[in-house]
Amino acid sequence: MNVFTDLVDDWRGLPARARAISVGLSLAFLISLYFYGVGFNTAFLFACVFITVGVWLAGGPRNVQMHVDQAPALLLLCLMALVLLVFQHGLFAVSPETSFAHVWIVACLPLWVLVAAPVGRLLFRLLFIVVLLYATYSVFDFLVFGQRAHSPLLDPNNYVTLLYLAWIPWLLGSLNTRSRVGVLVITLLFCTAMFATSSRYAMLVVTGACALSFWLCHKYRFGYGTPLAASAGAVLALALAFTFEQSSLTSAFGEETDQPSVRLVLIQAALELIRNEGLLAGTGIGSFSIFYPMIRPVADQETNGQFVHNDYLQLAFEGGVWLLVPLIVLVVAVAWCCIRGTFVRREWDSRLPFAVAAAVALLHAAVNFVFYILPLVVVLGVLVAIVFAPEAQPVSPRGKTGSPSRGLWAVVGFGLILNLGWLGLDVYNQAAFAGRPALPGVSGIRRSSDSLLEYVETTLALNSDRGLPWLVRAETMIQREDPAGAAVAYKEAVSIDPWNARGLMGYANLLLEHPETSSESEPQTLLESAVALNPHYIPAASAAIGYHVNRGQFSRARAIAEELIDFCPLLTNRNVERLRGFLDRVRGSALYGTEPEFDARIDQCRELEPREGGAGRAETAVMRWLMR
Q1: Which of 434, 479, 505, 576 is the most buried (most CB within 10 A)?
Q2: pLDDT exceeds cutoff 50 at 628
Q3: Considering only CA atoms, which of 71, 101, 80 is closest in space to residue 325?
Q4: Are 293 and 305 in contact (CB under 8 A)?
Q5: Average of pLDDT values for 217-245?
Q6: Which of 158, 138, 163 shows the shortest CA–CA distance to 148?
Q7: Amino acid 42: pLDDT
Q8: For residue 405, is pLDDT > 70?
Q9: Nearest to 127 by CA among 354, 300, 334
Q10: How far is residue 126's CA from residue 6's CA, in Å, rounded to a whole number?
């Protein structure tokens, strides 16, 4: 498969609207790579997708009907998944403020399938080139600087997924070509980048892909040149990786690593939460990070508690069984496509390479997090769109004349835009309230407390069922020296979103500083709730300890401090200065000096150095630009 030649041919054969969709989705993919997909910068991606969906719908009901005729079952499944995601987020999320970004990320999988269906192969080739460039950069960085490959993603295991989602379709799609040198070079490049991540799953993927290529060449009589070249490239890549970094690759398979046990702890926690919190309704996409700190064992010092490392269990807890159904249907359908193309069909199916790559990623989701990372769901959505679309796609609309579905799909399109707009309001509000200056309009919103309050009032008029605008309103009222107004806003924010430790802590501090503001809540109850939500949330723990120490309740203050100290190795990576400031305050309080063992633990924790790791140079530069 000559990627560049096929790219030119696809570009010439598609209408202008299809080209616009391909370019729009490619730009959105690039944005998702830099902004990783779990922060407020999702607003940039949202803008690209919103415009692209608008272009897709601009062709009218007949153009949409053409896509429905191509793969009606897939379209129905994706629409159902989108509706269920928005429905779950709106009605059952215990903390909409926490779950909104994750809902948007997970929703990108069915959304990308919908939009990429008519331009799947062209779009894949564009994305392949992007991933190839990143693989080249990773190999250079690894060989010259000895850096473990992870860029542009922060997690090497996720980066492996991005690499093989591009490499497997290219390799298997090249089985009936004669470009042996190209297969050798590109396989060497991709596999070196994958091995440089020290991922055990990458080793299995490379071995399995090479073995499968031999089997497919044997079945379809393609000749063994391509799999031999790929195997040679994989062996050379492994030898090269071991030459430059033996210790990291060896430790990935050594007994000293405790990753399997940590993942087992996370899976057991997810199962316990499913039993305790119920299985049907779900608690909201992204809410595992709220509940896990409450039951987190001290033995887990390696994860941030955001992901289960088993997406199916996490979605079963956060979304309920009914939200898991579309995903399970997709898994079964992709598995059947792989089995049929490998063992049943007697003719070569050009969609099989994409189905195999999608199946590998769906299997990977059982041991890592895949569905919660934007670049991965973007590429996975493109692969699924290719797998379930007809091999021969029409290049111009040929919808049924006088189709009775015209009005139906016009309503569906309007509903899709409306749902995207509803989620988009949350996305923009989060970015605006966080003060992201790179987002258009934020500087004007935050130029003064009056303009910020005016925007908050507008947001509440559009959607008063969100806790974050009420929380920002309360904090703005405090700046304007209006404690009574702040108390009303805090009360509303806490009642809407009782899982937001920032709101609980702010409300408690307000009641402590202004006891004249009447309230049914007590500061101690609010602070204890904030600590219970996340025992290693430093601001809440510090406020609660100060409250108890001032009232002579040293045993309770010590218990909170000890629970936080247990997580010192976890916190020193990103919050070392904040943690040391907290420990210094403890040393300067009446709590220090009461027990020698406790004092020794405080001193030992203060001496810990930050762990190795963190964002790469590209991510750090982007974040600095955003925070200007």
Answers
A1: 505
A2: no
A3: 80
A4: yes
A5: 90
A6: 138
A7: 65
A8: no
A9: 354
A10: 11
